[in-house]
């Protein structure tokens, strides 16, 4: 009886290690992004030959707005990766991203905070083939809390 209990404990530990290793491996190939100050979180699983881009859409009163800065931060070390200015259609695109977790944030000056209603309207992650540079039709629409 004692021998069976010891065997079952080892079996349970081995099973637990296998589950953890599988979960860690599946997270290693997933890119995810959240918007600062929001519960919106999106993720996309990438294959070995894929990279990703994040498209951000800025809006004010339901209309796209250009000329505003959006920053991309890597969550693991809180490093700002890149800061871009939205185009005339309110779009910012961060390219050539690897599978990690990122946060996007609209950068606001003090004057802009008082006068502007500009906000991140939506964002998407798109995968593309690293070798061919073609978009793979995998868009994220998953929202999480």
SSE string, helices as H and strands as E: HEEEEEEEEHEE
Spans of at least 5 consecutive residues whose pLDDT stays below 50 are: 13-26
Strand share of the residues? over 45%
Overall number of structural domains? 1
Question: In DSSP terms, counting alpha (H) and pi (I) runs of 4 or more, how many helices?
Answer: 2
Largest sheet: 5 strands, mixed
3D shape: globular
Mean of all residue-level pLDDT scores? 78
Strand order of the largest sheet: 2-1-8-5-6
What is the number of beta strands?
10
N- to C-terminal distance: 46 Å
Helix content: 10-25%
* Rg calculated over all Cα atoms: 20 Å
Structural class call reads alpha+beta
Structure explained in plain terms:
By secondary structure, the chain is an alpha+beta fold. It has one domain (2-139). The chain has two helices and ten strands. The chain has helices at residues 2-28, 110-115, and strands spanning 30-35, 41-45, 50-60, 63-64, 69-74, 79-85, 91-97, 101-106, 119-129, 135-139. The strands form two sheets. The chain has a five-stranded mixed beta sheet with strand order 2-1-8-5-6. The longest helix is centred in the N-terminal third of the chain and has 27 residues, at 2-28. The chain starts with a helix and ends in a 6-residue tail after the last strand. The model is unreliable at 13-26 (pLDDT under 50).
């Amino acid at each position: 009886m004692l021998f069976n209990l010891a065997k079952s404990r080892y079996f349970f530990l081995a099973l637990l290690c296998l589950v953890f290793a599988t979960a860690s491996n599946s997270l290693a190939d997933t890119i995810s992004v959240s918007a600062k100050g929001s519960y919106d979180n999106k993720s996309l699983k990438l294959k070995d030959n894929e990279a990703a881009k994040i498209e951000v859409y800025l809006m004010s009163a339901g209309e796209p707005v250009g000329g505003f800065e959006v920053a991309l931060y890597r969550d693991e070390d809180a490093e700002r990766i890149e800061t871009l200015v939205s185009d005339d259609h309110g779009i910012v695109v961060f390219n050539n991203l690897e599978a990690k977790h990122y946060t996007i944030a609209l950068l606001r000056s003090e004057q802009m905070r008082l006068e502007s209603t500009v906000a991140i309207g939506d964002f998407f992650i798109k995968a593309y083939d690293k070798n061919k540079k073609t978009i793979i039709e995998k868009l994220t629409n998953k929202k999480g809390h």
